[in-house]
Amino acid sequence: MSKMAFDLDDMAEAEFYDIVDYWEKRLK
Predict the structure, then answer these.
(1) Distance (Å, rounded) from C-alpha 20 to C-alpha 28?
(2) Dihedral, 18, 12, 7, 2 alpha carbons, nearest 10
(3) Rg of the chain over CA atoms, in angstroms?
(4) Contacts of 11 (CB under 8 A, 6+ apart)
(5) Cα→Cα distances 12→3, 7, 24, 27, 28, Å
(6) Distance between CA atoms of 9 and 28, rounded to whole angstroms?
(7) CA distances to 10, 16, 17, 26 from 23, in Å
(8) Where are the chain's structural domains?
(9) pLDDT, tens digit (0-9, with 9 covering 90-100), for 1-28
(10) Taking the model in full, what pTM does it have?
């Protein structure tokens, strides 16, 4: 159970950084 939650956390974190990267490129 905790492994599954950890995986979901990892995916959310990766998606968050993808969004940040996208906006940084767009605002430059």
Answers:
(1) 12
(2) 160
(3) 12
(4) none
(5) 14, 9, 18, 23, 25
(6) 29
(7) 20, 11, 10, 5
(8) 1-28
(9) 556 666 767 777 888 889 999 999 999 7
(10) 0.45
